[in-house]
Every structure is written in structure tokens, then in C-alpha cells.
Write a structure and sequence with these properties.
Length: 301
């Protein structure tokens, strides 16, 4: 993905073209991750790297403002600016609970996040053709806390327009976590809804959502006892996604999730599939373990 080169060259048209290609083709990488989301992730990463701290010379935001000066209704630039401002707001706020945030930082947090939220709302008429508008709106909603009915309606609209687009569900999952606006029952209901329906790959959405939870939340171990996860459905979902996208990263991440949930039999299954991939690729396989246990010596779940 040539995002870095396009940023270095200040090639706004090239960035728009690349995003449009990913948006139109709905292409994914070898792991099944949406290329459009990876595009935005790399773009924001490169722009954030231009700025060292809140209030410093913000070359990343200046880059996007120059982009918007040329094309005020540019979809990619509008969404990217929203993402950067939300990230800046969280950088000032911190990722802890609200009562741990120093009172003196809240005005700056609300200013940064409010700018992102309002700009996104103002741009919805033209920018919501991109699924990342919805995921970015939901990120801004965490601090903004608009009416719950608005948040749910916006999520439902995005999920209907872009079924199976994980980043929309990822942002809504965060919104529904117990430390924000929901509980584990609401999270599981969302994961189940995402995994139902006729679209190819839908079953794998259950595993993808809980994989995000396992990677990013402090819900404790194992997931099987700390959340409302249906482990039987989770196993079917993990295997379905691994069959559809048989990459080493998928095998390793599902192996670790199985370990974290004390299911050593399932971990053994994924480590076996990882070994098969390495063997097929002609790689040397040695010292492979899962949950700290060598293959063949797992205890039952």
C-alpha cells in the first residue's frame, strides 16, 4: 500500500484514487481485513507522525487542511481530519475512566472532539458514501455522547449500507462496552447480529468482533467467563473465518484467543493449521507452542 509515498509527494489526487479503488472493489488483504480501513489507518498514522504533541506545530492537520482548501468536499480528507481530531482528543483525555481525567483537561478534550463531531455531521450528506464516515462518527460519539437514539440510528444506517464492514461494528462495540454505554449482553447481541444474514463471510464476524475485544479491552481472562460470549458459536466462527482467509496471522490470533479462553484443544487445532501453512510455504517449523504447551500435550478444555 503506497500511502506513505503519496503523503510524501502531497499527492491528494492519488490518495483519493486509491481510497476510491478500495471503496469500489471492497477488497481485502490476506487476513480478510478491509483494505479501505487499512488505507485510512496508514494515512492517519503517517499524518499523526508529523506532530509530536497537542498544541505543537501540527503538520499532519495542516496537510489535511491544504487538501480541503483545494477540494472542500473531499470525502477522504474530511474523514481523515475527523479521525485525527478524535485521536488528538483521546491523547489529551487518556484512555482511562472519565473520573480519572483531570478536570482541567476536559475543555480541550471537548473542543477537539467537538470539532470532529460537528465537521462529520456537517459532511454527512457527501462523506457518508464512505463506510469510514460511520466508524469515525461512532468514535467521536464516545466523548461527544450524543443521544443514544442518534448513535444507534446512525450505526444501523451504516450497517445496512455496508454490511460486513468490520470497522463500523468495531466502533459500535467500543460504544457498547461496560465502561462506556452498554454491557456484555449488548456486545454479544451486536456480534450475533453481525454474524447473521446471507452475506458470504458473515459467520466469521462473531469471531472478528471478539478478537478485537480480546486484543483491546481489559475485560480479563478468560473471555468465556468474563463476557457473554457463546464459545460454541465462537469456535464455529473462528474456523469459518480461518477457512475463508487461511493466513498465518489468523491462525495465531485465534490460537491465542483459544488459549486466553482456556480451550487448549481449539488452540491445538489452530497451531496445527499454522504449522501446515509454514510447511506448505517451505518455512522451517521449530519450537512451536501454544499456551506454553507443545503440540500434542494439551489438556482438554
Amino acid at each position: 500500500m503506497a500511502v506513505g509515498h503519496l503523503v510524501a509527494a502531497r499527492d491528494f489526487a492519488g490518495l483519493d484514487t486509491l481510497a476510491r479503488e478500495y471503496r469500489t472493489t471492497k477488497s481485502r488483504d490476506i487476513n480478510g481485513e478491509e483494505n479501505l480501513h487499512l488505507f485510512y489507518r496508514w494515512l492517519v498514522h503517517d499524518l499523526i507522525a508529523m506532530t509530536s504533541c497537542d498544541g505543537c506545530d501540527d503538520k499532519g492537520t495542516d496537510f489535511v487542511h491544504a487538501w480541503l482548501a483545494r477540494s472542500p468536499k473531499d470525502v477522504v480528507a474530511t474523514i481523515t481530519l475527523g479521525k485525527i481530531e478524535v485521536l488528538h482528543a483521546f491523547a489529551v483525555r487518556g484512555r482511562g475512566y472519565a473520573d480519572a481525567v483531570p478536570p482541567e483537561v476536559w475543555p480541550r478534550v471537548r473542543e477537539l472532539n467537538g470539532q470532529a463531531y460537528q465537521a462529520l455531521m456537517d459532511a454527512k450528506s457527501f462523506a457518508s458514501l464512505d463506510p469510514e464516515w460511520y466508524s469515525t462518527y461512532l468514535e467521536a460519539a464516545l466523548i461527544q455522547q450524543p443521544p443514544e437514539a442518534e448513535v444507534r440510528a446512525t450505526f444501523n444506517e451504516g450497517a445496512k449500507k455496508f454490511p460486513g464492514y468490520l470497522p463500523i461494528y468495531e466502533s459500535m462495540t467500543t460504544y457498547l462496552l461496560p465502561e462506556w454505554n452498554g454491557d456484555w449482553k449488548a456486545v454479544d447481541a451486536l456480534a450475533r447480529a453481525a454474524s447473521s444474514g446471507p452475506q458470504d463471510g458473515n459467520l466469521g464476524m462473531y469471531a472478528r468482533i471478539y478478537r478485537l475485544i480480546g486484543r483491546h479491552c481489559s475485560c480479563g481472562r478468560p473471555l468465556r467467563t468474563q463476557t457473554e460470549i457463546d464459545w460454541s458459536l465462537m469456535k464455529r466462527s473462528m474456523r469459518a473465518w480461518a477457512d475463508r482467509y487461511p493466513s498465518e496471522w489468523n491462525m495465531v490470533s485465534f490460537m491465542r484467543l483459544s488459549c486466553d479462553s482456556d480451550d487448549y484443544i481449539e488452540a491445538q487445532y489452530f497451531i496445527g493449521r499454522r504449522i501446515a501453512l509454514q510447511t506448505e510455504a517451505g518455512q522451517v517449523v521449530s519450537g512451536v507452542t501454544a499456551c506454553g504447551v507443545p503440540p500434542g500435550r494439551f489438556k482438554p478444555a
